Amino acid sequence: MLTSSVNPAASSTSTAASGTSKSNMDEAQDRFLKLLVAQLNNQDPMNPMDNAQMTSQMAQINTVTGIQQVNDTLKNMAEQFTAMQVLQGSNLVGHNVLMEGNKLTITDGKASGAVNLAARAESVKVDVMSPGGQVVDSFNLGALDAGQHGFTWDASSYTYGGTPTFKITATLGGKPIENTALSVATVQAVGSSNGAMTVQLHDGTSVPYSAIKTIL
C-alpha cells in the first residue's frame, strides 16, 4: 500500500547508485589509459602519434565522462524532485478530486459527478445506470456553457448492489456536443512509481498524479 511518507532508504539507494556509476566511470577511464599507454609503447618510432591524435583521444574520454556526470546529476535531481512532490502531495490525502470516469460513489444517500463540455449546450442530460447497465434515474442539467460543471444526484432510492455509473448526453440544436464525464474520488495516500508521483484512491486503485483534473 502506498503511503505519504518517503522511503528513508531512498537516499542510501541513490548514493549507492551514484557510487556504482562513478565506479563504472573510473573503470572506463582506467581501461582507456591502459590502451593509450599500450598504444604509445607499441607505436612505430619512425611514425609516432602526434599531439593532435593524442589530444583528440583524450578529448573523447573526457567528453564521455562529462556526459555521464551530467546524466548522473540529472537523475539525482529528478529523484529529489519526485520525493519533494510526494511530500507536498501528502496534503491531498483526505481530499476529493475529479478524474475522467463515470462512477458514482454514494455517501450519505448522495453521489456527485461532473462533466466537461467542449462547447455550449442547450440541453445536458444525465442518465444514472446500475452495474448491469439499466437506467435507474435521469435528470436534466439544462443549458450549460462550455467548461466544467458539477452535479449531485439523490441516491436515497437506489437499491441496486454495486457502484452505479452515469452517462452524459449534451446537445445543441439537436446535434451532440462533445463532453467528458468526470467522477469524484477521495485520495487515500500518495507515493511514487518509476520516478513519477502516484495517487491511491479510496477504492484501492492507484493512478498517476497527472490523471487528476481538479482538486475539490
From TrEMBL:
Job description of the protein: Required for flagellar hook formation. May act as a scaffolding protein.
Family: Belongs to the FlgD family.
Residue ranges annotated for the FlgD Tudor-like domain, each copy included: 84-213
Domain of life: Bacteria
GO term, biological process aspect, one: bacterial-type flagellum organization
Entry keyword set: Bacterial flagellum biogenesis, Cell projection, Cilium, Flagellum
Compositionally skewed regions (Low complexity) per UniProt: 1-23
Signal peptide annotation: none
Coiled coil start-end: none
Protein name: Basal-body rod modification protein FlgD
Domain FlgD/Vpr Ig-like as annotated: residue spans: 101-173
One Pfam family in the UniProt entry: FLgD_tudor
Region of interest: Disordered: 1-25
The keyword Cytoplasm is annotated on this UniProt entry: no
